Automatic annotation (TrEMBL):
Residues 13-89 form the MlaB-like STAS domain. It comes from the Bacteria. Transmembrane segments: none annotated. The lineage of its organism: Bacteria, Pseudomonadati, Pseudomonadota, Gammaproteobacteria, Moraxellales. This is MlaB-like STAS domain-containing protein. InterPro entries: MlaB-like_STAS (IPR058548), STAS_dom_sf (IPR036513). It holds the Pfam family STAS_2. SUPFAM superfamilies: SpoIIaa-like (SSF52091).
Amino acid sequence: MAKLQQLENQIAVIGQIDFENADDVYRQGLQIIKNNQHWPMLIDLQQLTHGNTLALAVFIQWLRACPGQHQLKLLHVPAKMQGILRASHLEQIAI
C-alpha cells in the first residue's frame, strides 16, 4: 500500500508502489502535479519502502505530465533505483 502526502511543491511517497495500487498512486500524483504552482516539483522517496521499476515508471509518467519547462526532481532515491536511473540515463532527475 502506498500513500502520497503533499507539502507545497513536494510529494512524499509513503509505503510501496505495487501492481495493485500503481494506477491509483499515478492518478493521485497526477492531480497534485496538475494543481501545482511551485516548481520544480519534488518527489521525496525517503519513506518509499521498496524502490522498483514499477515505482520508477509511475515517476516517469508524472515527469511527462509536467507542463511546459517545469521539472520534477526525486529526493532520497533508494540505491537500487539510482542504479536503474543511471542505466536509463535519467540520473539528472535525482537530487
